[in-house]
Task: structure prediction
Amino acid sequence: MILYEYPFNERIRTYLRLEHLFRRLGELVPADSALSHHYALVTIFEIMDVAARADLKADVLRDLDKHKNVFNSYRGNPAIAEAALDQVVGQLERNFGALNTIPGKAGQALTENEWLMSIRSRVGIPGGTCEFDLPAYYAWQNRSASSRRADLERWLTTLAPLAESIYLLLKLLRDADVPYKVIAANG
Result:
């Protein structure tokens, strides 16, 4: 069975796009090939493009806070396990705090890295990342997989609070409803 998720609005559509990109990174970064790490960088640039939307960080923070308030309203209800409630509220607060401490837009720190931005400006050009156009990038691609991976993981730390918040918000959204089967006639 194939699971299709249809977003209710543009905000959820953006969250689903980011989740898709972060999951792709989860596959590419652990790989050893230079090509996988090239596409990991391309994916980071795609995340930066999505995260550059002016209101994204504010939307995520607002959704985290809204969920925290909803869960806090369940306090004192005998049908709710307080320990589980504390755990979810704590996770919402941690994600809110981590995302809120990032100055500016999510991923903005990466835009200050001139080396990354030189690659980003060439990646959209067919063949634009050839060794003669970007010799420093070519040298990076020829470093050891562990060295490239360490760089990728360092750059991803600036995006981690956004990724964790998106994962949590989508998990809460998915857990709030029951999926149902639908058969699409003719696909």
Notes: Residues 10-28 form the longest helix (19 residues). Residues 10-175 form a domain with the YacF-like fold (CATH 1.10.3900.10). The chain has nine helices and no strands. The chain has one domain: 10-175.
